[in-house]
Structures
1.
Amino acid sequence: MTVLSQTLAVAAKDARIEWRGRARTAAILGFAGTVLLLFSFAAAADTKTLTTHAAGYFWLALLLGSVLSLADAFRIETEDDALDGLLLLPVDPRAIFLGKALARTGALTVLALMLMPIAAVLYNVGVDGSWLQLAAFIVLGVAGLAAPGTLYSAMTSQVRGREVLLPLLLFPLVVPVVLAVVKGSGLALAGDPMGQASSWLGVLAVFDLVYWSVCPLVFSAVVER
Amino acid sequence: MKKPFPREHFLGLFGLVLFAVGSWMGLVEAPPERYMGEVGRILYVHVPTAWIGLLAFTVGFGFAIASLRSRSLVWDDVLVGLVEVGVLFAAMLLIQGSIWARPTWGVFWTWDPRLTTSAIMLLSFVGVLAMRAFIKDPPRRARWTAVGTIIGFLDVPLVYFSIKWWRTLHQPFSSPETVAGSMVWPLRINAVALLCIGAWLVIRRARLARHLRRVHETAAPEPSRLVAGD
């Protein structure tokens, strides 16, 4: 099996587990939706403020929800020491990482898609710009959270204090992602007369490129026994 | 048996004396800065702090790669010293920066690229140190610290440029070309002084890490918590 087919096999396995445990996904969606609701209290339920900063609130809610989803990437492997079994198989560690990160990207994209209508209703926003740009920002943004998130999930799932460690490690790291997606998807929603969205897509692309290439390389050092 | 005097203390002592000289030159000898006046004198400690802090993380990045490649715990002993000293200098940098920003910009904090990047860099490495505290097994702790350092360090330029595009408001970089002659010497002397003090702290910390590791290696094994029937 090549690295690619191994990656797809791991991703398919995780996607199956995700589908069979969809009650948990629904709970995470409920949590992220609650966060969206809470932001409107922070903004004193001022419709204008909420509409202007809708992209920011949406991504922060998704970021908070994503920590729960990312923690799952390796929580499912620590149960019954499944990770040891996975590592004993003749599978390239890079393929394990890429497959898991791919499955997380999928899960987070689904979470984002389900969260979007809630945000649209609560904050009274519609897409006046470009749907295509919005889709690109969501996929690249979520991929930017998934790669370092999956790596840190592999570390933190194996130690005490995992609930606090994963966000502590992940949140400072993904600041460029948050900046780029908030600015970029704001432009995609409101329209982009100055053509600035492409430079934010560039930031995301560089971040994704760096972490999707470095994380698989260091992953074997993380799970080594 | 008489304990030998650790030689790195000479380095630290030299650094402290040099720091006193450099600070005296900066506070007394050098003229007040043209636009910022007396407040500008914080530059003589602020800029060297930034240099040495970033240097600690950069050297740490190199040590992290070496640690992953060789898997010798000696690298990790120094790496933890470098990350801790980097965190210390980054924290001092932010405090000095806030003290300077208040009279100059009118606020303690602003979302300037270098300021925000320093804060995020500090938080990233505080996270690495926090994670370290939770891992007991030394080889695993060494591997994960190295991975965390590599991942965190790669983020620094990305954070910097993304925030720079987001908004900007800071002095141009200080280098011997951008400051007047009478200001160059206190800057240089303090940079060497902080380099010596930083190196001294790293060596002390590495020594401590090595001693702790030796203690761990030679300690009696913990009594098993397994009871009959497990």
2.
Amino acid sequence: MESGLVGLIHGFSVALEPHNLMWCFVGVFVGNLVGVLPGMGVLSSISILLPLTFSMQPVAALLMLAGIYYGAQYGGAICSILLNLPCHPPHAVTCLDGYPMTKSGRGGVALGITMLAAIIGAAFGIVQMIFLAPYIASIAFKFGPQEICSLMLLGLLAGSTLAKGSAIKGISMTLLGILLSLVGTDVNTGNDRFTFGFIELSDGLELVTVSLGLFGIAEFLKSVNAVAPTGKRTVRLGFRDLRPQRSDIKTALPPIIRGTIIGSLCSLIPGTGPTIASFIAYATEKKISKTPERFGHGAIEGVASPEASTHSAVQGDFIPTMSLGIPGDAVMALLLGALMIHGIQPGPRLIVEQPDIFWGLIASFWIGNIILVVLNVPMIGLWVRLLSVPYRFLYPAALFFVCIGVFAARNEMFDVGATLLFGAFGYLLLQLGFEPAPILLGFVLGPRLEENFRRSLLLSRGSLETFIDRPISAFFVAASVLLLLAQMVAALRKAKAPIRVPETAFD
Amino acid sequence: MSRLAKHRDVFAGGLIALIGAGAIAEGRTYGIGGLSDMGSGFFPVVLGAGLVLLGGVMAAMGTPAPEGHAATTPDWRGALAIAAAVVLFIVLADNAGLLPAIFGCVFVGALGTRGTTLKEAALLSIGIAIFGIGLFSFVLKVPFPILRGVLH
């Protein structure tokens, strides 16, 4: 408790350094921007900006990249509420009641409540991280290679099966990601693997090559000529429209608190990030409401609760990433990758060995969220006008950023060509109904998984029982098996009675 | 419903199984070893086997794609322009410098959308080129000639 406070004070001193403060601001600003713009995803934006951080100090780099992630959540709600465009998955459910509110002239109030929900949700998520992350890390200190291995197994399984889409496809994407991470020289033997004679591949594939191909180029291929222009439907909105009335706040506050709790619980399970949290929050709110028929016609609870849960889950998402080094989703995998590029080993030691990064990040969450609220209130008019920038001007510019970003990662033109191939491959995967995000999870964790697996079996002289002989490891293995069984039961039940879930709801 | 949509999961499973088989074939040449002394090929072969298995199950369970979702035919004009833009970037950056590379990439990329005029594409690419050179050459100092042989 006390050390937490000391750490936090230290964190603020780091985050308030002008240099770091500036990058935190850049991060949340860019995040807010891409959140507003339809057709720009968080994953592709972070990938595009990742190469820019190579020359930055690691603290500043992480503050900025993290800022994009939570900043985008503020922007995403604007798009959903004003235009009924679910351009960012966690905010898809906000459309259901947010847009009817806009149609009845209460869009400003919906946005105001969203901001209130955001700041409450985020604040809770951050506090949860302050207390939980060091505690989890202190347990994880005792982990040997066996525990790390089985924990990674659990994390990868959860990350690939609980997220959207079919579980079996998710797992195959994860395996594919691990396979891609093996490309290059094997550190244990010095053999080249899957390089097919290209010297450029002997250092392995770059993270940005894979992520910009799969989430940049593939996304452009999918959206070109397909994203409808939005310009004509722009709503006029000013500063004063945002202020909710006292009665609105009174109705919205209990749902906000419920949403916050749901979000923070969801964030602790890897793979159930903000998207799932917001759907659960909405469903809960509708179920306990005395007037469920109001939902879908502009019920303020239907905006408040999912938004609060999204923001609290987004902050909570950082807990397993920072305390265990196990990312819960693809965005976190990218952030971990960014740390690794700077030579920082993620894992339970991070909090102790890199207090600047851990506590600086937490302090920057506070600062960033406050900046976001301050930024959004006066600038809402600008964001609304930005919504009318057509996609046909956005993607060519982004295309260039992809090219130069991939090249700058290690001054290698070969990688730019490889990115194009990954883009085409990613597009094929999307067409075949795959969700490529788990590839990144596997790609980032792959090398550590193989290394720890080898080390475990070297220690046990080739006996696989080592994974169930140790109690903590056995627990993770058991949890993985349970998770798989649950998925199989669910799949079989679905096969018997096909329930038609509108897939677009999860897009 | 197109043929791809009807048998989507069969194609998907087939692709995954194929990749897995490739990993096994290639991984075997690296030396598999045993559990206590793993060779470089051990992990690839295990992963490959997993992919073959999953691909097989996927194809066997195969449900068709939901109506109106995925499996649209690609937009050829857009796809071609995007691919050409990236290739042009590589060629121009290697031979002419960063400025022409940015211009060419954005210009060709922009033409992928139907209805974008040459003038719009030119204006956009000039704007991005100025911004890009400013950011990458002057602020971030990416070591790359702006115009080969003229401006470094």
